[in-house]
Amino acid sequence: MVLGHEISGTIAAAAEGVSLSTGQRVAINPSLPCGECEKCREGMRNHCSNMQFLGSAMRSPHVDGGFRDFLVCDAAQAFPIPDSLSFAEAALAEPAAVCLHALAQAGDLVGRAVLITGAGPIGLLLVALCRMAGAARIVVTDRLEAPLKVALATGADHVIDVGNNSAGVDGWTGMHGRFDLHFEASGSGPALLDGLAALRPKGLCVLVGQGAEITLQVSSLISREIEIRSSFRFDREFGTALFYLGAGRLQVAHLVTATLPAAQANAAFDLALDKTKSVKVQLDFS
Ligand SMILES: [Zn+2]
């Protein structure tokens, strides 16, 4: 299957009756819920039973994604890009939408102390959006120094290199923890446990990163009435993300660390895997 779900490009041809014109610059929302199933009718479109998500293997047959010269999508998936935005920035509307959906699980951010574990693209976009939403303090952990520097440049107040600092978040835990909110964006079990330990009573953990497996001491959560929620993809947040990007309220240009021509795709993947050098690496098919 063809991968790729963070997509921007130019309209090559529009079907009759579609209000988009040839040559128009658009960002593509990879999410296409059916609109008719029980989940869609109940307003849970991101949980659509017949979701066609570009570049996703969840459905059979799999849905091809954006790593190609041309793709056909529904007109509703094509969002015009404001002139102020580059293709590179507009393609980040997708991960920004993921993060807006995660923020929506957390409620009011004003004045809250936030821990974000994982300084990958999702963690970094969460930093920017938490800052925008009024968080009082934002602390970020990662196992590498390079992405933590980007986290500081993106608006974090404090970073902890848990790869080189065995104390980790210990200074932020204790009986009552220090954080109102923990966004887990690393998919790492130890990071999830760190964050849960660092939450104040009534604190909330929002799971965004996938893949963590943990053994959980439930009593440590009950004694502080800790809440855990999860966040999966997004729905209408895509348009909101593109609006924030276009209005200059969400700055992401520094997160695109390289753009390589599609012919150098293998090199691009190698570069993307090197987290000491890369945040987002994009492929250019033009
Ligand atoms: Zn549906």
Structural notes for this entry:
The protein contains nine helices and 13 strands. A six-stranded parallel β-sheet has the order 8-7-6-9-10-11, with helices on both faces. A three-stranded antiparallel β-sheet has the order 1-2-5. Strands 3-4 form a two-stranded antiparallel ribbon. Helix 4 links the parallel strand 6 and strand 7. Helix 3 crosses helix 4, helix 3 crosses helix 8 and helix 4 runs parallel beside helix 5. The chain binds zinc ion (ZN). Zinc ion (ZN) binds next to helix 1.
Secondary structure class reads alpha/beta
How many β-strands, per DSSP? 13
H/E element order: EEEHEEHHEHEHEEHEHEHEHE
For this structure, the quaternary state is single chain
Task: Describe the largest sheet.
Answer: 6 strands, parallel
Task: List the ligand species.
Answer: zinc ion
Ends: how far apart? Answer: 21 Å
Number of helices: 9
Give the neighbour order of strands across the main sheet: 8-7-6-9-10-11
Helix content: 25-40%
Structural features:
about 25% helix; alpha/beta; globular; about 290 residues
